[in-house]
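Q: Structure tokens for this one, please.
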Amino acid sequence: MESAKLAASEIEELEKTAKELRRKSLELIYRAGSGHPGGSLSAADIVAALYFGVLRYNPKDPKDPARDRFILSKGHCTALLYCALARAGYFDESDLADYRRIDSKLFLSGHPHPKTPGVEIATGSLGQGLSVGHGIALASRLDGLDYRVYVLMGDGEVQEGQVWEAAMSAVKFKSNNLVAIIDYNKVCQDNLTRDLKDLEPLEDKWRAFGWDVMRIDGHDMGQILDALRAPPHPEKPRMIVADTVKGKGVSFMEGKPSWHGVAPSEEEYKKALKELE
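A: Here is the predicted structure, written as tokens:
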């Protein structure tokens, strides 16, 4: 019973954290006058679980060799990433005021920059993150370290051919310390994913490529934690297909391609914050 209470308490705390990340991400985008709210909101539960329930890291030593690695392959959702990094202690929350400013001393740009504390690689050219993640996973074996590599991908990104080259390579080299997560919100920049290149049957595709596959509700914190904390497969990389909602938590943004990469007006921002209270 005590462990059940602890689990419930942790889930509740992470759900609160995810909601705070949503609010803060929207604030950054609103104040900058640009950014990507839809995908930041859809991935907030996953990022909250990773940074505050799963990843091993030391914000005082961002290059600690033993750290787990996280790659935001869907690199346009930096508002969410920077809010998580600030909350995790990599830099002060006041630095977030420089989001998307050309003179940002921490390089808090529209896509991740490796000069930002806590950022592993530059991303945003979609389709590259899984390849890099696999390379880092191989490096752990060469260095004799036991860290895990987590790559968060967008569903539109999975339409890129390089993703499937990486998928084959990771299986070939039995990179079982590699965990990929697809933020499967089913909405791309200007259309529904299925109307561009339908990804289904998505689980079957990854299994056919030799991955250990899980499918979860990407807004159910218990399911997210269970999937991320599951022991590694003896020799297969893991794919977590997380069903999510683009713009999650803000009714007028949910499921709308038009909210992929546009900042809310003052009125829209206030309405969104009220819904996220």
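A few notes: The chain has one domain: 2-275. The mean pLDDT is 95.
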